[in-house]
Structures are given as structure tokens and as C-alpha cells.
Amino acid sequence: MEMLALQILLLCHVVVGTVGNILQFVHNFSRILTDSRLKPIQVILINLAVANAIMLLLFAYSYDMIDFVPRKPPTEVKCKLAHFFHLVARGTIMCSTCVLSTYQFVTLVPGNWARVMFREISPKVVSYSCFSCWLFSILNNAYMPMYVSGPQKSHNDSDSKDNWICSISGVSVDMNILRFSHDIIFLSIMAWTSVSMVIHLHRHHQRMNHIHKVNQNNRGHAETRAAHTILMLVVTFVSLYILNCISILLHISFVEFRLWTRYVINLLALSFPTISPLLLIFRDCKGHCSVHIMSVWKSM
């Protein structure tokens, strides 16, 4: 019963997350029809939505999430391709989130000269950064299909769950440490930019309270709200990453609970691609509503 509940929850994650990322993609990309070019933050969010959707759809296509749906066991080629694109999407999500937090931090840097200079170069830098995220993820995981094999068939139990699970073997400890170090670099950048934004926003809030400046302009309010949204996104990503690492350690340590922990690992892996578009859409809609209410209130 617990397994079925986890499987249904996984399916809900895939459906809700895919729809949310499609809406997030359309919401940002549709503005190219009215504007001359996309804003840098919209380019980042489009890349994040695409990577999220790829990761969710790969789970729906590659894994046996629901027992009562008749399916054939995955082939070795399918396992290799699915695992490769899963790692590429995962790496792009982490890199795009890092770029997003870094971009938001730079936009909050005080000083008109910094804003003007960054406004001139930011579209090119952001586009190059998003492209680099995909390229880095592809090159960083190009060797992984060599270590992935198809499900190990069992002669004793043809319906065993092991017949559906792709296996990974032969990856050296040094290679795992190198891959983990890449994650640590991205997480460290996200942590540094997030802490810096929190300090900057706290000082800004104290300064505004000190001079009793009640009438803030819409630009400052929008930048502050955007920074809060990015902070929520980064905290969500880091928290889920830590929980996922703990689940992987439990999966390795407790052999008798490996099937159960595998579903938990998959659930945590799908949580950020599902939560992030919903968070962005909710915060964006709430921000537009609050700005509209403020403008109506001032006109009265």
C-alpha cells in the first residue's frame, strides 16, 4: 500500500510539474511576440523550464511508476539514453538555478555605474551562461552511458522488480568525487549569492525604516520581490538536494529497504522540477496583483 501511494505521488509530480513547466515556458517565451527581445531573467527561466520538463518526462517514460500499467522492461539502449539525458537535465537545472541566483544578486549591486554596465552586457552574458549550462552538462556526463546497463534478468522470478531497474556499475570513487565537487561548486555559489542578497535586503530594509520612506517606486519593489522569489527557489533547491543525498546514503546502507528508498529518491529528485514552476507562477501572479492594487489605491 505504501509503494502504491509513492507511485501515485510520483505520477502526480510528473503531471503537475510538466503542466507547470509548460505554463512557465509559454508565459516567458510568449513575450517575444510583443517585445523586441527577451529579458535576461526570462531566458534563464525558459532554460530552467525546459530542463525541468525533460527531467519529468524522462521519469514518466523510463521508470515503472505504476504497477498496474502494462509495460515492457527497458532495453539497454533505452537505459543508457534515459540516464544520460536525466543527468544532463539535472546538471542544467543546478547550473541554471546558480545562474539565476547570481544574476539576481548582480542586479541588486548598489551603484548606478554597475547597473548601467551590467544592463549593457547582461543579455549576452546570460545567453552564453545558459548555453554553457547545457554544454557543460553534456560534456560532464558524456562518459556515463558506458557504465549503464539494462535490467538484470532473473531466472527465478520473471516479475521481479530487478527486471525493471537499470543498473550502474564500474564508476570509480575518484569519478564520483569529481562529480560531487561540481555540485559543491554550484551549491557554494548559490549559498554565497543568497547570503549576500539576504544581507543586502536586510540593510536596505533597515535604511528604509530609518528614513521612514514609505513611498517606494515600483522598480525597487519589483526587484526586492524578485530577490525574495529567487531566494525561496534557491533554499528549496538546496534543501531538496540535501534530503536527496541523505536518502541516497540510506539507500546504500539499508539493503532491505532499497526498493522503498528508491521511490523516495525519485520523489525528491522530481520535487524541485515540480515545485519551482508553481512557485514562480504563484509569486509572479501575486506580484502583478499587488502592483495593480497599489496603483489603483494611489489613483483614488
The CATH class name reads Mainly Alpha
Main sheet attributes: strand count, strand direction, barrel closure: 2 strands, antiparallel
CATH architecture: Up-down Bundle
The multimeric state of the shown protein is single chain
Identify the strand order in the major beta sheet: 1-2
Structure description:
By secondary structure, this protein is mostly helical. The protein has one domain: Rhodopsin 7-helix transmembrane proteins (Rhopdopsin 7-helix transmembrane proteins, Up-down Bundle), CATH 1.20.1070. The protein is built from 7 helices and 2 strands. The chain has a two-stranded antiparallel ribbon. Helix 2 packs parallel to helix 4. The C terminus is likely disordered.
Record the SSE blueprint.
Blueprint: H1 2-29, H2 40-62, H3 76-107, H4 112-140, E1 148-149, E2 167-168, H5 173-210, H6 218-253, H7 258-299
Helix pairs in contact: 1-2, 1-7, 2-3, 2-4, 2-7, 3-4, 3-5, 3-6, 5-6, 6-7
InterPro entries: GPCR_Rhodpsn_7TM, Vmron_rcpt_1
Family: Belongs to the G-protein coupled receptor 1 family.
Keywords: Cell membrane, G-protein coupled receptor, Membrane, Pheromone response, Receptor, Signal, Transducer, Transmembrane, Transmembrane helix
